[in-house]
Protein backbone atom coordinates (compact mmCIF):
# COMPACT_ATOMS: atom_id res chain seq x y z
CA UNK A 1 0.00 0.00 0.00
CA UNK A 2 1.29 3.46 -0.75
CA UNK A 3 2.39 5.67 2.06
CA UNK A 4 -0.14 6.65 4.55
CA UNK A 5 -0.14 9.93 6.45
CA UNK A 6 0.13 8.37 9.90
CA UNK A 7 -0.21 11.75 11.60
CA UNK A 8 -3.82 12.10 10.48
CA UNK A 9 -4.97 9.01 12.34
CA UNK A 10 -7.16 10.40 15.14
CA UNK A 11 -6.85 7.31 17.35
CA UNK A 12 -4.17 6.66 19.93
CA UNK A 13 -2.74 3.17 19.44
CA UNK A 14 -4.51 0.64 21.65
CA UNK A 15 -2.29 -0.96 24.27
CA UNK A 16 -2.19 -4.37 22.51
CA UNK A 17 0.95 -5.30 20.56
CA UNK A 18 -0.71 -6.01 17.23
CA UNK A 19 2.50 -6.76 15.41
CA UNK A 20 3.30 -9.53 17.85
CA UNK A 21 -0.26 -10.77 17.59
CA UNK A 22 -0.15 -10.87 13.84
CA UNK A 23 3.20 -12.59 13.79
CA UNK A 24 2.66 -15.12 16.57
CA UNK A 25 -0.61 -14.81 18.44
CA UNK A 26 -2.86 -15.73 15.54
CA UNK A 27 -0.80 -18.66 14.34
CA UNK A 28 -3.11 -21.09 16.03
CA UNK A 29 -5.96 -19.62 14.11
CA UNK A 30 -7.06 -21.59 11.07
CA UNK A 31 -7.62 -18.44 9.02
CA UNK A 32 -4.16 -17.16 9.77
CA UNK A 33 -2.72 -20.50 8.64
CA UNK A 34 -4.73 -20.24 5.44
CA UNK A 35 -3.49 -16.70 4.76
CA UNK A 36 0.08 -17.87 5.22
CA UNK A 37 -0.38 -20.81 2.87
CA UNK A 38 -2.44 -19.22 0.10
CA UNK A 39 -0.89 -18.52 -3.24
CA UNK A 40 -2.47 -15.09 -3.28
CA UNK A 41 0.03 -12.48 -2.08
CA UNK A 42 -1.24 -10.74 1.05
CA UNK A 43 -0.01 -8.14 3.51
CA UNK A 44 -1.22 -6.42 6.67
CA UNK A 45 -0.18 -2.89 7.67
CA UNK A 46 -0.48 -1.06 10.96
CA UNK A 47 -1.95 2.43 10.55
CA UNK A 48 -1.20 3.25 14.18
CA UNK A 49 2.54 3.19 13.65
CA UNK A 50 4.29 6.04 11.86
CA UNK A 51 4.23 5.65 8.06
CA UNK A 52 1.75 2.75 8.13
CA UNK A 53 4.37 -0.04 7.88
CA UNK A 54 3.79 -3.62 6.78
CA UNK A 55 3.63 -5.85 9.85
CA UNK A 56 2.89 -9.13 8.05
CA UNK A 57 3.35 -10.59 4.59
CA UNK A 58 2.83 -14.15 3.39
CA UNK A 59 5.21 -16.28 1.31
CA UNK A 60 3.28 -15.58 -1.89
CA UNK A 61 4.06 -11.88 -1.43
CA UNK A 62 7.80 -12.47 -0.96
CA UNK A 63 7.73 -14.76 -4.00
CA UNK A 64 5.94 -12.17 -6.16
CA UNK A 65 8.21 -9.26 -5.19
CA UNK A 66 11.55 -11.02 -4.72
CA UNK A 67 12.17 -9.36 -1.31
CA UNK A 68 12.71 -11.30 1.95
CA UNK A 69 10.37 -11.04 4.96
CA UNK A 70 13.05 -9.08 6.81
CA UNK A 71 13.28 -6.54 4.00
CA UNK A 72 9.51 -6.13 3.82
CA UNK A 73 8.25 -6.05 7.40
CA UNK A 74 8.60 -2.58 8.90
CA UNK A 75 8.55 -0.75 5.54
CA UNK A 76 5.79 1.25 3.88
CA UNK A 77 4.52 -0.28 0.62
CA UNK A 78 5.93 2.51 -1.49
CA UNK A 79 9.12 0.48 -2.10
CA UNK A 80 7.08 -1.38 -4.74
CA UNK A 81 6.63 1.77 -6.82
CA UNK A 82 8.96 3.03 -9.50
CA UNK A 83 9.34 5.75 -12.11
CA UNK A 84 6.65 4.34 -14.43
CA UNK A 85 4.05 3.83 -11.71
CA UNK A 86 1.04 6.02 -12.41
CA UNK A 87 0.95 8.73 -9.72
CA UNK A 88 -2.80 9.21 -10.02
CA UNK A 89 -3.34 5.54 -9.09
CA UNK A 90 -1.04 5.95 -6.08
CA UNK A 91 -3.05 9.02 -5.03
CA UNK A 92 -6.26 7.02 -5.35
CA UNK A 93 -4.95 4.45 -2.87
CA UNK A 94 -3.63 7.10 -0.47
CA UNK A 95 -7.02 8.82 -0.43
CA UNK A 96 -8.78 5.53 0.30
CA UNK A 97 -6.42 4.86 3.21
CA UNK A 98 -6.92 8.35 4.59
CA UNK A 99 -10.70 8.04 4.38
CA UNK A 100 -10.57 4.38 5.52
CA UNK A 101 -12.36 3.02 2.52
CA UNK A 102 -11.82 -0.03 0.37
CA UNK A 103 -10.04 0.43 -2.91
CA UNK A 104 -9.26 -1.83 -5.90
CA UNK A 105 -6.73 -0.67 -8.50
CA UNK A 106 -4.34 -2.03 -11.12
CA UNK A 107 -0.91 -0.57 -10.46
CA UNK A 108 2.51 -1.03 -12.07
CA UNK A 109 4.88 -2.32 -9.37
CA UNK A 110 8.59 -3.15 -9.29
CA UNK A 111 10.25 -6.34 -8.05
CA UNK A 112 13.53 -6.32 -6.15
CA UNK A 113 15.40 -7.11 -9.39
CA UNK A 114 13.96 -3.97 -11.02
CA UNK A 115 11.52 -5.77 -13.32
CA UNK A 116 7.92 -4.59 -13.41
CA UNK A 117 4.60 -6.38 -13.02
CA UNK A 118 0.97 -5.34 -13.10
CA UNK A 119 -0.50 -5.71 -9.65
CA UNK A 120 -4.26 -6.00 -9.06
CA UNK A 121 -4.32 -4.50 -5.57
CA UNK A 122 -7.26 -4.62 -3.19
CA UNK A 123 -6.94 -2.70 0.10
CA UNK A 124 -9.47 -2.86 2.86
CA UNK A 125 -9.59 -1.41 6.40
CA UNK A 126 -10.05 -4.00 9.18
CA UNK A 127 -12.11 -2.95 12.21
CA UNK A 128 -12.36 -4.62 15.62
CA UNK A 129 -15.58 -5.46 17.46
CA UNK A 130 -15.78 -1.92 18.81
CA UNK A 131 -15.61 -0.46 15.31
CA UNK A 132 -12.04 0.75 15.81
CA UNK A 133 -9.65 0.66 12.86
CA UNK A 134 -7.04 -2.00 13.59
CA UNK A 135 -5.22 -2.84 10.35
CA UNK A 136 -5.24 -2.41 6.63
CA UNK A 137 -5.33 -5.65 4.70
CA UNK A 138 -3.95 -5.78 1.16
CA UNK A 139 -4.38 -8.64 -1.29
CA UNK A 140 -2.49 -8.57 -4.56
CA UNK A 141 -2.32 -10.49 -7.80
CA UNK A 142 0.22 -10.40 -10.60
CA UNK A 143 -1.98 -9.78 -13.66
CA UNK A 144 0.82 -8.96 -16.12
CA UNK A 145 -0.23 -11.69 -18.53
CA UNK A 146 -3.81 -10.48 -18.68
CA UNK A 147 -2.69 -6.88 -19.20
CA UNK A 148 -0.34 -7.95 -21.99
CA UNK A 149 -3.11 -9.97 -23.66
CA UNK A 150 -5.43 -6.96 -23.41
CA UNK A 151 -2.79 -4.67 -24.86
CA UNK A 152 -2.22 -7.11 -27.74
CA UNK A 153 -5.95 -7.29 -28.41
CA UNK A 154 -6.19 -3.51 -28.34
CA UNK A 155 -3.31 -3.29 -30.81
CA UNK A 156 -4.99 -5.85 -33.10
CA UNK A 157 -8.29 -3.94 -32.96
CA UNK A 158 -6.52 -0.70 -33.80
CA UNK A 159 -4.84 -2.31 -36.81
CA UNK A 160 -8.19 -3.71 -37.90
CA UNK A 161 -9.87 -0.29 -37.68
CA UNK A 162 -7.06 1.49 -39.52
CA UNK A 163 -7.15 -1.30 -42.08
CA UNK A 164 -10.86 -0.79 -42.75
CA UNK A 165 -10.38 2.93 -43.23
CA UNK A 166 -7.37 2.61 -45.52
CA UNK A 167 -9.04 -0.19 -47.46
CA UNK A 168 -12.07 2.00 -48.17
CA UNK A 169 -10.01 4.97 -49.29
CA UNK A 170 -7.69 2.82 -51.39
CA UNK A 171 -10.63 1.16 -53.14
CA UNK A 172 -12.02 4.50 -54.31
CA UNK A 173 -8.56 5.73 -55.27
CA UNK A 174 -8.00 2.61 -57.31
CA UNK A 175 -10.98 3.40 -59.48
CA UNK A 176 -9.86 7.01 -59.97
CA UNK A 177 -6.36 5.91 -60.88
CA UNK A 178 -7.78 3.35 -63.26
CA UNK A 179 -9.52 6.16 -65.13
CA UNK A 180 -6.46 8.44 -65.13
CA UNK A 181 -4.02 5.74 -66.23
CA UNK A 182 -6.39 4.36 -68.81
CA UNK A 183 -6.95 7.68 -70.58
CA UNK A 184 -3.24 8.48 -70.33
CA UNK A 185 -2.53 5.30 -72.28
CA UNK A 186 -5.13 6.23 -74.88
CA UNK A 187 -3.71 9.76 -75.15
CA UNK A 188 -0.15 8.49 -75.35
CA UNK A 189 -1.02 6.35 -78.36
CA UNK A 190 -2.50 9.41 -80.11
CA UNK A 191 0.08 12.11 -79.42
CA UNK A 192 2.12 12.72 -82.53
CA UNK A 193 5.80 11.81 -82.25
CA UNK A 194 6.88 15.35 -83.07
CA UNK A 195 4.71 16.94 -80.38
CA UNK A 196 7.41 16.88 -77.69
CA UNK A 197 5.59 19.15 -75.19
CA UNK A 198 2.39 17.06 -75.20
CA UNK A 199 4.38 13.85 -74.93
CA UNK A 200 6.29 15.18 -71.88
CA UNK A 201 3.01 16.22 -70.24
CA UNK A 202 1.45 12.81 -70.85
CA UNK A 203 4.55 11.08 -69.48
CA UNK A 204 4.50 13.24 -66.34
CA UNK A 205 0.83 12.42 -65.68
CA UNK A 206 1.54 8.76 -66.33
CA UNK A 207 4.53 8.73 -63.93
CA UNK A 208 2.64 10.45 -61.11
CA UNK A 209 -0.43 8.23 -61.53
CA UNK A 210 1.76 5.11 -61.53
CA UNK A 211 3.33 6.17 -58.24
CA UNK A 212 -0.18 6.73 -56.90
CA UNK A 213 -1.12 3.24 -58.04
CA UNK A 214 1.84 1.72 -56.19
CA UNK A 215 0.86 3.54 -52.99
CA UNK A 216 -2.72 2.39 -53.38
CA UNK A 217 -1.57 -1.21 -53.80
CA UNK A 218 0.41 -0.91 -50.58
CA UNK A 219 -2.60 0.48 -48.75
CA UNK A 220 -4.79 -2.32 -50.06
CA UNK A 221 -2.15 -4.84 -49.00
CA UNK A 222 -2.08 -3.38 -45.50
CA UNK A 223 -5.86 -3.47 -45.30
CA UNK A 224 -5.69 -7.12 -46.44
CA UNK A 225 -8.02 -6.19 -49.26
CA UNK A 226 -5.66 -6.98 -52.03
CA UNK A 227 -6.58 -9.62 -54.54
CA UNK A 228 -4.08 -12.38 -53.80
CA UNK A 229 -3.32 -14.88 -56.52
CA UNK A 230 -1.58 -17.49 -54.47
CA UNK A 231 0.07 -20.58 -55.81
CA UNK A 232 2.10 -23.38 -54.38
CA UNK A 233 5.75 -22.39 -54.41
CA UNK A 234 9.04 -22.89 -52.73
CA UNK A 235 10.50 -19.77 -51.16
CA UNK A 236 14.04 -20.88 -52.04
CA UNK A 237 13.21 -20.68 -55.76
CA UNK A 238 11.59 -17.31 -55.22
CA UNK A 239 14.75 -15.97 -53.55
CA UNK A 240 16.90 -17.46 -56.33
CA UNK A 241 14.70 -16.25 -59.21
CA UNK A 242 14.53 -12.83 -57.63
CA UNK A 243 18.27 -12.60 -57.17
CA UNK A 244 19.05 -9.99 -59.84
CA UNK A 245 16.51 -7.54 -58.44
CA UNK A 246 17.65 -8.10 -54.86
CA UNK A 247 21.28 -7.62 -55.88
CA UNK A 248 20.40 -4.39 -57.64
CA UNK A 249 18.46 -3.14 -54.58
CA UNK A 250 21.36 -3.83 -52.26
CA UNK A 251 24.10 -2.52 -54.54
CA UNK A 252 27.78 -3.49 -54.73
CA UNK A 253 28.98 -1.93 -51.50
CA UNK A 254 26.84 -4.11 -49.23
CA UNK A 255 27.23 -7.89 -48.87
CA UNK A 256 24.04 -9.86 -49.49
CA UNK A 257 24.20 -13.48 -48.34
CA UNK A 258 21.68 -16.27 -48.69
CA UNK A 259 21.41 -19.26 -46.35
CA UNK A 260 18.70 -21.41 -47.89
CA UNK A 261 17.57 -24.57 -46.11
CA UNK A 262 17.75 -27.86 -47.95
CA UNK A 263 14.36 -29.53 -48.28
CA UNK A 264 12.47 -26.33 -47.52
CA UNK A 265 8.73 -26.95 -47.28
CA UNK A 266 6.40 -25.38 -49.82
CA UNK A 267 3.90 -22.68 -49.05
CA UNK A 268 0.85 -21.32 -50.85
CA UNK A 269 1.39 -17.61 -51.45
CA UNK A 270 1.09 -14.89 -54.05
CA UNK A 271 4.61 -14.77 -55.56
CA UNK A 272 4.35 -11.16 -56.70
CA UNK A 273 3.34 -9.94 -53.26
CA UNK A 274 5.91 -12.17 -51.56
CA UNK A 275 8.61 -10.63 -53.74
CA UNK A 276 7.35 -7.14 -52.87
CA UNK A 277 7.45 -8.00 -49.15
CA UNK A 278 11.00 -9.35 -49.39
CA UNK A 279 12.08 -6.36 -51.45
CA UNK A 280 10.65 -3.95 -48.87
CA UNK A 281 12.46 -5.61 -45.98
CA UNK A 282 15.75 -5.92 -47.88
CA UNK A 283 15.40 -2.29 -49.03
CA UNK A 284 14.92 -1.14 -45.42
CA UNK A 285 17.96 -3.19 -44.36
CA UNK A 286 19.94 -1.55 -47.15
CA UNK A 287 18.91 1.88 -45.82
CA UNK A 288 19.89 0.87 -42.28
CA UNK A 289 23.43 -0.48 -42.86
CA UNK A 290 26.65 1.41 -43.55
CA UNK A 291 27.98 1.54 -47.03
CA UNK A 292 31.15 -0.54 -46.86
CA UNK A 293 30.67 -2.74 -43.81
CA UNK A 294 26.97 -3.48 -44.44
CA UNK A 295 25.87 -7.13 -44.29
CA UNK A 296 22.40 -8.48 -45.05
CA UNK A 297 21.53 -12.16 -44.75
CA UNK A 298 18.40 -13.85 -46.06
CA UNK A 299 17.76 -17.20 -44.40
CA UNK A 300 15.06 -19.78 -45.01
CA UNK A 301 14.22 -22.65 -42.68
CA UNK A 302 11.43 -25.01 -41.69
CA UNK A 303 10.04 -24.36 -38.22
CA UNK A 304 7.57 -26.20 -36.05
CA UNK A 305 5.70 -23.93 -33.66
CA UNK A 306 4.58 -26.01 -30.67
CA UNK A 307 1.31 -25.69 -28.79
CA UNK A 308 2.81 -24.13 -25.64
CA UNK A 309 2.10 -20.50 -24.96
CA UNK A 310 5.58 -19.73 -23.61
CA UNK A 311 8.85 -18.95 -25.27
CA UNK A 312 9.02 -19.77 -28.94
CA UNK A 313 5.53 -21.28 -29.16
CA UNK A 314 2.95 -20.34 -31.75
CA UNK A 315 0.71 -18.59 -29.24
CA UNK A 316 3.53 -16.27 -28.17
CA UNK A 317 3.83 -15.26 -31.83
CA UNK A 318 0.05 -14.97 -32.18
CA UNK A 319 0.14 -17.80 -34.70
CA UNK A 320 -1.59 -21.15 -34.57
CA UNK A 321 0.73 -23.98 -33.62
CA UNK A 322 1.95 -25.88 -36.66
CA UNK A 323 4.48 -26.05 -39.46
CA UNK A 324 5.78 -22.85 -41.01
CA UNK A 325 8.36 -21.75 -43.54
CA UNK A 326 10.40 -19.03 -41.84
CA UNK A 327 12.18 -16.43 -43.94
CA UNK A 328 14.45 -14.05 -42.03
CA UNK A 329 16.32 -10.96 -43.13
CA UNK A 330 19.11 -9.92 -40.74
CA UNK A 331 21.26 -6.82 -41.03
CA UNK A 332 24.13 -5.26 -39.07
CA UNK A 333 22.64 -1.77 -38.92
CA UNK A 334 21.63 0.03 -35.70
CA UNK A 335 18.58 -2.21 -35.21
CA UNK A 336 15.05 -1.16 -34.32
CA UNK A 337 14.75 0.78 -31.06
CA UNK A 338 12.48 -1.30 -28.73
CA UNK A 339 10.50 1.87 -28.03
CA UNK A 340 9.27 1.95 -31.65
CA UNK A 341 9.26 -1.79 -32.40
CA UNK A 342 5.49 -2.08 -32.02
CA UNK A 343 4.89 0.90 -34.30
CA UNK A 344 6.97 0.10 -37.34
CA UNK A 345 4.24 -2.02 -38.94
CA UNK A 346 1.71 0.83 -38.62
CA UNK A 347 0.88 2.61 -41.87
CA UNK A 348 2.66 5.93 -42.30
CA UNK A 349 5.12 5.25 -39.48
CA UNK A 350 8.57 6.25 -40.69
CA UNK A 351 11.76 7.55 -39.13
CA UNK A 352 13.16 8.45 -42.53
CA UNK A 353 13.55 12.00 -43.81
CA UNK A 354 10.70 13.73 -45.59
CA UNK A 355 10.40 12.38 -49.11
CA UNK A 356 12.54 9.31 -48.37
CA UNK A 357 10.07 7.06 -46.59
CA UNK A 358 6.32 6.65 -46.89
CA UNK A 359 5.94 4.37 -43.87
CA UNK A 360 3.86 2.01 -45.99
CA UNK A 361 6.43 -0.70 -46.77
CA UNK A 362 6.15 -2.68 -43.55
CA UNK A 363 2.41 -1.97 -43.29
CA UNK A 364 2.09 -3.72 -46.64
CA UNK A 365 4.26 -6.61 -45.44
CA UNK A 366 2.16 -6.94 -42.28
CA UNK A 367 -1.14 -7.00 -44.16
CA UNK A 368 0.12 -9.42 -46.78
CA UNK A 369 1.50 -11.82 -44.16
CA UNK A 370 -1.75 -11.78 -42.19
CA UNK A 371 -3.77 -12.31 -45.37
CA UNK A 372 -1.51 -15.27 -46.21
CA UNK A 373 -2.20 -16.89 -42.82
CA UNK A 374 1.25 -16.02 -41.51
CA UNK A 375 2.95 -13.25 -39.61
CA UNK A 376 5.83 -10.76 -39.75
CA UNK A 377 7.86 -10.01 -36.61
CA UNK A 378 10.86 -7.87 -35.77
CA UNK A 379 13.70 -8.63 -33.36
CA UNK A 380 17.44 -8.19 -32.99
CA UNK A 381 20.01 -9.94 -35.16
CA UNK A 382 23.23 -11.53 -33.86
CA UNK A 383 25.05 -8.43 -35.07
CA UNK A 384 22.78 -6.15 -33.04
CA UNK A 385 20.94 -5.02 -36.19
CA UNK A 386 17.34 -5.69 -37.16
CA UNK A 387 16.01 -9.21 -37.69
CA UNK A 388 12.76 -9.49 -39.61
CA UNK A 389 11.02 -12.88 -39.67
CA UNK A 390 8.25 -13.90 -42.02
CA UNK A 391 6.24 -17.02 -41.17
CA UNK A 392 4.30 -18.69 -44.01
CA UNK A 393 2.11 -21.71 -43.24
CA UNK A 394 3.40 -24.91 -44.81
CA UNK A 395 1.33 -26.19 -47.73
CA UNK A 396 1.25 -29.75 -48.99
CA UNK A 397 1.71 -30.71 -52.65
CA UNK A 398 4.29 -30.17 -55.37
CA UNK A 399 5.21 -26.72 -56.64
CA UNK A 400 4.21 -25.30 -60.00
CA UNK A 401 6.82 -23.53 -62.05
CA UNK A 402 5.95 -19.89 -62.44
CA UNK A 403 5.03 -18.98 -65.96
CA UNK A 404 7.51 -16.73 -67.67
CA UNK A 405 5.67 -13.75 -69.16
CA UNK A 406 8.40 -13.36 -71.79
CA UNK A 407 7.47 -16.74 -73.22
CA UNK A 408 3.77 -16.02 -73.54
CA UNK A 409 2.29 -15.29 -76.94
CA UNK A 410 2.84 -11.83 -78.32
CA UNK A 411 -0.26 -9.67 -77.90
CA UNK A 412 -2.38 -9.39 -81.00
CA UNK A 413 -5.21 -7.08 -81.91
CA UNK A 414 -8.63 -8.58 -81.36
CA UNK A 415 -11.68 -8.45 -83.53
CA UNK A 416 -13.96 -10.19 -81.10
CA UNK A 417 -17.09 -8.94 -79.36
CA UNK A 418 -16.73 -8.15 -75.66
CA UNK A 419 -19.50 -7.75 -73.11
CA UNK A 420 -18.07 -5.49 -70.43
CA UNK A 421 -19.83 -5.20 -67.06
CA UNK A 422 -18.89 -2.34 -64.75
CA UNK A 423 -21.11 -0.40 -62.36
CA UNK A 424 -18.91 2.70 -62.13
CA UNK A 425 -19.75 5.01 -64.99
CA UNK A 426 -16.28 6.47 -65.56
CA UNK A 427 -14.44 3.16 -65.28
CA UNK A 428 -16.97 1.60 -67.65
CA UNK A 429 -16.57 4.35 -70.24
CA UNK A 430 -12.80 4.08 -69.97
CA UNK A 431 -12.90 0.30 -70.38
CA UNK A 432 -15.07 0.67 -73.46
CA UNK A 433 -12.68 3.28 -74.90
CA UNK A 434 -9.65 1.07 -74.17
CA UNK A 435 -11.21 -2.03 -75.68
CA UNK A 436 -12.43 -0.15 -78.74
CA UNK A 437 -8.98 1.33 -79.14
CA UNK A 438 -7.62 -2.23 -79.11
CA UNK A 439 -10.03 -3.10 -81.90
CA UNK A 440 -12.74 -4.96 -79.98
CA UNK A 441 -16.45 -4.50 -80.49
CA UNK A 442 -17.78 -3.56 -77.02
CA UNK A 443 -21.17 -3.57 -75.36
CA UNK A 444 -21.23 -2.09 -71.86
CA UNK A 445 -23.63 -3.27 -69.14
CA UNK A 446 -23.83 -1.73 -65.66
CA UNK A 447 -24.74 -4.75 -63.56
CA UNK A 448 -25.16 -8.51 -63.75
CA UNK A 449 -28.88 -8.42 -64.53
CA UNK A 450 -28.36 -6.03 -67.44
CA UNK A 451 -25.55 -8.25 -68.76
CA UNK A 452 -27.77 -11.34 -68.68
CA UNK A 453 -30.51 -9.39 -70.50
CA UNK A 454 -28.03 -8.43 -73.22
CA UNK A 455 -26.95 -12.06 -73.59
CA UNK A 456 -30.56 -13.25 -73.72
CA UNK A 457 -31.13 -11.00 -76.74
CA UNK A 458 -27.77 -11.63 -78.42
CA UNK A 459 -25.46 -14.42 -77.28
CA UNK A 460 -22.76 -13.68 -79.81
CA UNK A 461 -20.03 -12.50 -77.41
CA UNK A 462 -16.60 -14.08 -77.34
CA UNK A 463 -15.68 -12.53 -73.98
CA UNK A 464 -17.37 -11.50 -70.77
CA UNK A 465 -15.16 -8.94 -69.01
CA UNK A 466 -16.71 -8.15 -65.63
CA UNK A 467 -15.91 -6.33 -62.41
CA UNK A 468 -16.32 -8.53 -59.32
CA UNK A 469 -17.81 -6.07 -56.84
CA UNK A 470 -21.16 -4.86 -58.12
CA UNK A 471 -24.38 -3.77 -56.48
CA UNK A 472 -27.72 -5.45 -57.12
CA UNK A 473 -27.61 -8.95 -55.68
CA UNK A 474 -25.38 -10.77 -58.14
CA UNK A 475 -21.66 -10.00 -58.14
CA UNK A 476 -19.17 -10.64 -60.96
CA UNK A 477 -18.37 -14.16 -59.77
CA UNK A 478 -22.07 -15.07 -59.73
CA UNK A 479 -22.44 -13.62 -63.20
CA UNK A 480 -19.40 -15.56 -64.42
CA UNK A 481 -20.88 -18.78 -63.07
CA UNK A 482 -24.21 -18.11 -64.80
CA UNK A 483 -22.49 -17.28 -68.11
CA UNK A 484 -20.23 -20.33 -67.88
CA UNK A 485 -23.33 -22.51 -67.42
CA UNK A 486 -25.63 -20.93 -70.01
CA UNK A 487 -23.15 -19.56 -72.58
CA UNK A 488 -20.17 -21.93 -72.48
CA UNK A 489 -18.77 -20.47 -75.72
CA UNK A 490 -18.15 -17.10 -74.03
CA UNK A 491 -14.73 -16.80 -72.37
CA UNK A 492 -14.51 -14.97 -69.03
CA UNK A 493 -12.11 -12.42 -67.56
CA UNK A 494 -12.72 -10.93 -64.12
CA UNK A 495 -11.34 -7.69 -62.73
CA UNK A 496 -11.15 -6.20 -59.24
CA UNK A 497 -9.11 -3.87 -57.14
CA UNK A 498 -10.44 -5.29 -53.93
CA UNK A 499 -10.39 -8.69 -52.31
CA UNK A 500 -12.88 -10.32 -50.09
CA UNK A 501 -12.57 -13.82 -48.73
CA UNK A 502 -15.97 -14.97 -49.98
CA UNK A 503 -15.33 -13.61 -53.47
CA UNK A 504 -11.79 -14.96 -53.42
CA UNK A 505 -12.99 -18.52 -53.16
CA UNK A 506 -15.40 -18.25 -56.08
CA UNK A 507 -13.08 -16.29 -58.35
CA UNK A 508 -10.19 -18.75 -58.27
CA UNK A 509 -11.37 -20.73 -61.25
CA UNK A 510 -11.42 -17.66 -63.54
CA UNK A 511 -8.70 -15.52 -65.06
CA UNK A 512 -8.39 -12.16 -63.35
CA UNK A 513 -6.75 -8.80 -64.01
CA UNK A 514 -6.05 -6.45 -61.12
CA UNK A 515 -7.16 -2.84 -61.17
CA UNK A 516 -5.74 -0.46 -62.07
CA UNK A 517 -4.68 -2.16 -65.31
CA UNK A 518 -2.91 -0.61 -68.27
CA UNK A 519 -3.92 -0.83 -71.89
CA UNK A 520 -1.12 -3.22 -72.91
CA UNK A 521 -1.67 -5.45 -69.92
CA UNK A 522 -5.41 -5.66 -70.62
CA UNK A 523 -4.79 -6.65 -74.21
CA UNK A 524 -2.32 -9.34 -73.15
CA UNK A 525 -4.75 -10.84 -70.67
CA UNK A 526 -7.65 -10.78 -73.10
CA UNK A 527 -5.55 -12.50 -75.76
CA UNK A 528 -4.38 -15.08 -73.21
CA UNK A 529 -8.01 -15.86 -72.32
CA UNK A 530 -9.33 -15.84 -75.90
CA UNK A 531 -6.40 -17.72 -77.44
CA UNK A 532 -6.22 -20.38 -74.74
CA UNK A 533 -6.67 -23.75 -76.43
CA UNK A 534 -10.26 -24.87 -75.96
CA UNK A 535 -11.25 -21.53 -74.45
CA UNK A 536 -14.35 -21.16 -76.55
CA UNK A 537 -15.35 -24.62 -77.61
P1 LIG B 1 9.74 3.48 -44.62
O1 LIG B 1 10.83 2.56 -45.09
O2 LIG B 1 9.08 4.21 -45.73
O3 LIG B 1 10.14 4.35 -43.49
P2 LIG B 1 8.59 1.08 -43.54
O4 LIG B 1 7.18 0.77 -43.12
O5 LIG B 1 9.20 0.17 -44.55
O6 LIG B 1 8.55 2.56 -44.06
O7 LIG B 1 9.51 1.13 -42.26
C1 LIG B 1 9.10 1.83 -41.11
C2 LIG B 1 10.26 2.15 -40.19
O8 LIG B 1 10.79 0.95 -39.62
C3 LIG B 1 11.47 2.79 -40.83
O9 LIG B 1 11.30 4.17 -41.04
C4 LIG B 1 12.57 2.48 -39.80
O10 LIG B 1 12.49 3.36 -38.70
C5 LIG B 1 12.15 1.12 -39.27
N1 LIG B 1 12.95 0.04 -39.90
C6 LIG B 1 12.54 -0.79 -40.88
N2 LIG B 1 13.53 -1.65 -41.22
C7 LIG B 1 14.58 -1.37 -40.43
C8 LIG B 1 15.91 -1.94 -40.30
N3 LIG B 1 16.33 -2.96 -41.06
N4 LIG B 1 16.73 -1.39 -39.37
C9 LIG B 1 16.31 -0.35 -38.60
N5 LIG B 1 15.08 0.21 -38.68
C10 LIG B 1 14.23 -0.29 -39.58
UniProtKB/TrEMBL annotation:
PANTHER family for this protein: SENSOR HISTIDINE KINASE (PTHR43065), TWO-COMPONENT SENSOR PPRA (PTHR43065:SF42)
Listed Basic and acidic residues bias regions: 1-21
Catalytic activity: ATP + protein L-histidine = ADP + protein N-phospho-L-histidine
E.C. number: 2.7.13.3
Region annotation (Disordered) ranges: 1-25
Organism superkingdom: Bacteria
Domain PAC: 101-155
Record bears the keyword Phosphoprotein: yes
UniProt-recorded name of the protein: histidine kinase
Entry keyword set: Phosphoprotein
Start and end residues of each Histidine kinase domain: 168-396
One MF term in the entry's GO annotations: phosphorelay sensor kinase activity
InterPro entries linked: CheY-like_superfamily (IPR011006), HATPase_C_sf (IPR036890), HATPase_dom (IPR003594), His_kinase_dom (IPR005467), HisK_dim/P_dom (IPR003661), HisK_dim/P_sf (IPR036097), PAC (IPR001610), PAS (IPR000014)
Organism listed in the record: Sphingomonas carotinifaciens
Source taxonomy: Bacteria, Pseudomonadati, Pseudomonadota, Alphaproteobacteria, Sphingomonadales
Domain PAS: 27-100
Positions of the Response regulatory domain: 417-530
Modified residues (4-aspartylphosphate): 467
Enzyme class, UniProt record, top EC level: transferase
Amino acid sequence: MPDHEGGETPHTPPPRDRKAEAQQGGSSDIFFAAVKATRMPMIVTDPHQPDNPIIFCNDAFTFMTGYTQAEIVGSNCRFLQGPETDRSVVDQVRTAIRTREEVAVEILNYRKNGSTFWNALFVSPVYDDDGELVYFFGSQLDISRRREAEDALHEAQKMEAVGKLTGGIAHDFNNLLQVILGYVDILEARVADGDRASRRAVEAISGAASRGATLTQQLLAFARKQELRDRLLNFNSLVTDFRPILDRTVGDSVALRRQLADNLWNCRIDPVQAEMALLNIVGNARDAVDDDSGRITITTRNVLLPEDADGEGGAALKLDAGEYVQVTVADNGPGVDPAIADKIFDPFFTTKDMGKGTGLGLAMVYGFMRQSGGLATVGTSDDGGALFSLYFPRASGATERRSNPALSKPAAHGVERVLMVEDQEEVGELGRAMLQDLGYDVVLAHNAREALDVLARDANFQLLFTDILMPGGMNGVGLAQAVKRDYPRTAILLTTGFADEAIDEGSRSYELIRKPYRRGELNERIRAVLDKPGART
